[in-house]
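Extended Data, panel c. Modelled sequence:
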Amino acid sequence: MADLAESTAKLQLDEETGEMVSKAELKKRQKKREKAKAKEAARSEVKNEEKAKPAPKPKATTDEPAIDPNFMFKTGFLDEVFKIRPMKPVFTRFPPEPNGFLHIGHAKAIAVNFGFARYHGGQCYLRYDDTNPEAEEQVYFDAILEMVEWLGFKPYKITYSSDNFQRLYELAEKLIGLEKAYVCHCNDAEIKLQRGGEKGTAGPRYRCKHAEQSVEENLKKFRDMRDGHYKPQEAFLRMKQGSITDGNPQMWDLAAYRVLNKPHYRTGDTWRIYPTYDFTHCLCDSFEGITHSLCTTEFVQSRVSYEWLNRTLGVYEPMQREYGRLSIAGTVLSKRKILKLVQEKIVRGWNDPRLYTLIGIKRRGVPPGAILEFINELGVTTANSIIEIKRFDQAIRKYLERTVPRLMLILDPIPVVIEDADELDGTTITLPFSPKDPKMGSHDVKFTKTVYIDRSDFREEADPSFFRLAPGKTVGLLQVPYPIKAVSFTKDDATGKVTEIRAVFEKETKKPKAYIQWVSTEAAGTREAEVRIYNSLFKSDNPNDAPGGFLTDINPESEVIYPNALIESGFDEVKRRAPWPEAAGESELGKGGPESVRFQAMRIAYFALDSDSTDDHIILNRIVALKEDVGKS
């Protein structure tokens, strides 16, 4: 019996059928398929008189070593950035606007800025760019810090652009005194004409007449702006940036301050004017002694104005460099569009597992270490990366394969009564958490005379191509000494569904061709669970271009719920030992939310515990399938 149990521990997944089979059986099947493919290829070659295609490259094994976690800092763009300015200690910053939830693209910005500083022995600030009181809320401040820490980084200091409002105001007055800023009263239409019109073809560019005002007049008007004498859009402070005919739009006298009659989250009613990003960002970098200001390539043209302002004011000058941003195809990342999905109740909220907000990705169960490894493997260049969902999923799958335990889960259970199982009823079977990593340990489950299998593993009529359970057919139960043979079944007359299968052990039969997962009765520790299978939220690879808009592209099968699933008793041990794995912001026992309870459900997918779960109601989210779902991105 022990020998048989040991042999079943070495089963392998047949990815084509989803069955667990012996190594010998898998090789036999693969050879048979290869022969069939070879025959088909030969027939095709003769028919089409084409050259034979080269054999596909062998798939990478899950045992391949993980890439050097510092790869993206040692080579390529970021290595060159440091060589341009090899200053130490390195100081960087991650400066999000607290007006929304971060998405997958921000994960790259966090990894680049915090990781670059850490690699070079420096520090990274978390600076909230809170210069727009119309859109900032506490929930965004909290969520941003939570995501930074979840990814495994600790800010050197948490700062706010608003900390510097007085200092920024004083520098604005200094800029006016240097005749490098003026108060403008032009409206949007007039400013467009000054800049050559909508398409730049309305005539030569020219500077606003207000640029000729005296220093004294500009100072008076600017202080009047500060003191509430102007309404929004009646006046704003512009920088006087050299020649208006410069080919770079970022040098066309950008706005530095505007009037906003809105209390600020932190400063209250103290200010009626607020600095713009173009005025604030470079100066706050200077105040904090940032050595390397790393941002995405949409700010390439802004580098000139960034350097101009710091140089003009005579303050410390950080070095700005730009890298390509990360985006995901087949979804939407726009705050406006995600808000629409939330308002229409198409998703459960901003943290819905189908979204690519970081709080959504976290809730789905994607480990922070998998995200960092994915970004590191992509590397950092000046080119933008638009990644297909399936590529992201494959990176997660590869990471989970080597880092999480395995359990048996039944999505759609059918009871199987094994009529001659009295001698094994109540016995203990020891199951490894991973056949490849003994360090994960093992756990015990009780075998019962009645077990549950998945409805998809039974057919009412035997089929030569079906190697699982059917009347008169034999199948193995994972880690159980003997295979079983179905002898009868009963059905519900109203629904036509099978309600019970009767079976017997086949003790004299040779090793079966396939093995399936099973769970014991609830009396033996099996738990009920609600399982949510998440698929792509959209049907197409580019929902933004869908006829009628992105809301017409919703995939009706994006969330499939199995309300009566069963999970084996080993789940309690996995939950107790979470997080799986201990990495990034989930670096030690007990450090991590419910989503850190992760496992591979054998023959099904990878799962994590959902944040809506309670002790009495387990909810599991599918993180990613065991293999790529062909035809979907």
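DSSP finds 16 helices and 28 strands in the chain. This feature is highlighted in the accompanying rendering.
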